[in-house]
């Protein structure tokens, strides 16, 4: 028999036969402030969650439901919903049906069972994901949808909790999270072992240890198993009970009263002390992990039966009888009526429209635009006071690093909700001095030195966006982002998609990267692969090659984040940070005077840069490749008589295909110069573009080799050079 039906029959038999067990925990409801009305309401939510699980399995068996992860055994997370406010943001574990159902009961106008069943049926009318995924989530209930299975939502929960204190200090009152709110993040015991989760625990405790406000509850719903692997008995308790900076609360998730006690204690502590809590709630997993998972393949019959005897719904029924709240007959009436009601709703839900076109599926990949237009220019008097010591330098040619630093300062001056965060971005000014003086000018609330954990840095940015802060986070080197790429791919870039545009997390991630550093770092500091960004739907990838473009592009990125709610990676070529000269020492051709806001020529998203009007050959490149191509262009023109144009892509994703085709119009030959590896590089997409859109053009590419970058004088041996570009251009022009 199906596991759900076995547990169903046992529940009915125990209630109808009057053989309900004694409660496991002897805590009296009145001793912990749990009212009689609340107990009954919690029981209704738990019954609805259980019957929702049973129905979803039946719908899946009929082909009308999809990928089921049940909440059975976890029903007492409803007690956490009872202990929190509706405006306390909750990033939930996938076994949290009872939490959402119970929270919905606290807000008028909600129809959570109908909403959830639309999600189970993948209907386009699903109010949270629009039919894109079976998720727990609700905009009115402050529950962003989660598709995470490995607790990758924990870093952004830390960021969201951290943002509450920032907004309070900056006196930003018009933000989604009230000043006294608490953030909840729930997860399983197996996920607690994931490096992402461990980083989040450490970051929250690290911040709280220093006195930083961190009103956050980590809810570990410990059912003792991860898919088929048992968690060692006592491991979670031993791991978290004595962590510095992390307040530990333990309770039973099998007993409603004790679950409420633990949840209310945790909520009160986090709200009062503004410190993180680890709420350890022992639970049981019924039905197996997900879908068609059969526990009998990895658990003994005795283990399965022991878990079935720990059914929290049975213990909740026992509580109802013990407290004279409901009789056995009334319990079964509630149980059966709920089953029948949900069945009727389910039959209606499966008839509702589904997504039928790729356009409909993709509609929410790019977030909706905000109606508000925010100027990127601060008041002149504010600028004069801020830049008093720099005004004499701003009209003189400067390298990219300094121009970026001034741009960041102007943006922060114009927008009081912008924060800068990353390792060493504070007084040190970053490894390359790009954030120089920002800490002195704006203080530690807005220029945040983080701990060394890329997942936490990106999570801070994602979470801060939930509270209407725009984080400009810094990853020190491109290779370091691989430690945390899922925060961009699986969390930041998917939120609009899975919430049908209702939730967004606009952010700018500054990353120093690419090659050509001869004396420093090897492949960890000279990573020349952008493949991890190029295949993330909706992500904007910007890569300036020079300081003047960097100024205009970073301002455009701020506009895109503030007004269009986009997630942006701003890749800064390290080797060009301090570069001043193009052809000969002292020519200063790679510098620019700083253009104040409102005076600069904007560089709009997708706008390509074109140098020259020649028709013999077009060289298409970006970053260091564009710099080297400009050097090669001089040689090709003066020594070989070729009339060229050199095109700077600037924006690598989304690629402006029409703009690129227009930029090479009239040229019969195109050379693509790509400093990234031959496999997985931008050049592959460009070759396909020209083959499809300009089949008459003779197009070839010069790329880096499929190799890591070594140290020292060998650093550029695998990369395009000025000389190799000249040689490739001559070969193409003669062909």
Provide a descriptive summary of the structure in words:
The model has no long low-confidence stretch (mean pLDDT 94). 40% of the residues lie in helices and 13% in strands. With 735 residues, the protein is α/β, with parallel strands linked by helices. Helix 23 links the parallel strand 15 and strand 16.
Helices, strands, pairings?
Blueprint: H1 3-16, H2 36-61, H3 78-83, E1 90-91, H4 97-104, H5 112-120, H6 154-169, E2 183-188, H7 195-209, E3 216-222, E4 225-226, E5 229-230, H8 235-240, E6 247-252, H9 256-273, E7 277-282, H10 301-308, H11 312-322, H12 328-349, H13 358-362, H14 380-386, H15 391-394, H16 400-414, E8 418-422, H17 438-442, E9 447-449, H18 454-465, E10 470-475, H19 485-492, H20 495-498, E11 507-513, H21 531-534, E12 540-542, H22 547-564, E13 567-573, E14 609-611, E15 617-621, H23 623-640, E16 644-648, E17 651-653, H24 657-663, E18 669-677, H25 682-693, E19 698-704, H26 722-734
Parallel strand pairs: 1-2, 2-3, 3-7, 6-7, 8-9, 8-10, 10-11, 11-13, 12-13, 15-16, 15-18, 18-19
Antiparallel strand pairs: 4-5, 12-17, 14-16
Helix pairs in contact: 2-4, 2-11, 2-12, 5-12, 6-7, 6-18, 16-22, 18-19, 23-26
